[in-house]
Amino acid sequence: MRFKNTLFLLLILLSTNYSYTQEYFDDLGPEFHKKKRQEFRSLMPANSVAFIFTSPIMKRSNDTDYMYHQDPNFYYLTGWREPHGVLVIFKDDQFDSDGSYNEIMYVRERNEYREMWDGRRLGIKGAKKMSFDRVKLRSEFIENTIPIENFSNILNTNIRDDVRDFKDDKYDLFDIQNKFQEIVSKKESDILGDLNKQFFSSSINQIMSKLRQTKDPLEIELLTKAIRISALAQIEVMRAIHNDMTEREVQGIHEFIYRKYGAAHEGYNSIVGAGGNACVLHYVTNEDMDIKDKLILMDVGAEYRGYTADVTRTIPVNGKFNNEQKIIYDLVYKSQEEAIKEAIIGNSFNDIYLKSYDIIAKGLIDLGIINDYREARKYYPHGVSHHIGLDVHDPGSRDLMENMVITVEPGIYIPENSNTDPKWWNIGVRIEDDILITNSGPVNLSIDAPRRSDEIEVIMAQDSPINQLVLPDINN
């Protein structure tokens, strides 16, 4: 009898779980996203409608997908993390038999079988708790055409050409996008038949850039957390690294620290390159087994609640800079220090870059590495700043405003066989920090991670508990 009661209770719990509406943990909260939709609406042109799509599910191999990552614009406006949906925003209030509305959110239906395999879906009930005016199933977007005949302007995110068609799902993102294209094509056809009408189809990227380039206090709080986690990981690597490690092990320490502090992901593929690998700007294979006595460049960043840091440190694996390493490192550090001072309201990315370039170019001339000021581009080939936020390269203006968060990241890279003294070969240095633009000047949010060469050597002389971990040898 007790077994039957237990089984009955278990069935009730399972049934309850499938009818339960899961809520995502979102530090920003529904009111933040609702506010952003209203700000977006205020920037829309007259008599317009906007269509914003979710990210597609990306196949990794065979029947395995990559971890799903929502389109940053979609998340920014909704807080929604599920695929196969679309948000429709109207410039002006619309009316039907149920009253007025100015947006419609189309979402996946609940599906008990698929949720057993892939995890819970919020469905309509869950979406309605997230401050949307109207929520409908995605099937309604396809089966019931939105009456757009009277709109003068349709805004949309770029239609991706790598979206998978799930053959067993006739309402997936592939079908949603096809329906949208059908709507636009019909609208364009109607316009061509009537020379008195005008119609504009445009991207929402310009509007989203204006919104996302400056951060609200909640966003700055999340970004700061991601950056502090990344800085602490840099410190722990400085303490733990030694000549017998590999690039992959160093990467693993960073990412272990991220997860210990609650950051579930990296904001981008970790760049961990030693020696000549440090001279490859986007080196992500991280597979060198021999890093002994080399400089190692670590361009890495934790993603915390969707917001990503971007912090780079370059350190000597053996704990001490040799003469040539220290000279190049200190030149990059001097360049960065002066460049950060240019990160003020009213200046631009170009002001920061020109300051950093001037110091590096003159320094390389003094060292005899180059003869001409313009030649520094050979060893400093990239820009110095970009926005960070929901993307590691967030959209935004190059002109600095209060509450922007940007990087300042000069570097020098001298690969093997460069036209200079071989003693400089295979030295690659980048120092990157995340800077908050304020009315009182730049604030370095990643300041916790040491940057001066002497400070780095002091930290590297300390012990790390990570090195107490001894694993069994599996090669014998």
Explain briefly what this protein structure is.
It is built from 13 helices and 19 strands. With 476 residues, it is α+β, with helices and mostly antiparallel strands. A hairpin with a 2-residue loop joins strand 18 and strand 19.
Describe the structure in your own words.
- This protein has 476 residues and is of the alpha+beta class.
- The chain folds into 2 domains: 14-211, 3-Layer(aba) Sandwich (Creatine Amidinohydrolase, Chain A, domain 1), CATH 3.40.350.10; 213-468, Creatine Amidinohydrolase, CATH 3.90.230.
- The chain is 35% helix and 18% strand.
- It contains 13 helices and 19 strands.
- The chain has helices at 2-19, 30-43, 72-78, 112-118, 123-128, 138-143, 173-192, 205-212, 217-240, 247-260, 323-340, 349-366, 453-460; strands spanning 48-53, 59-61, 64-65, 86-96, 99-107, 135-137, 153-156, 200-203, 265-266, 271-274, 295-300, 302-304, 307-308, 311-316, 405-408, 411-414, 427-430, 433-438, 441-444.
- A 6-stranded mixed β-sheet has the order 6-5-4-1-7-8, with helices on both faces. The chain has a 3-stranded antiparallel β-sheet with strand order 9-12-13.
- Strand 2 and strand 3 form a beta hairpin.
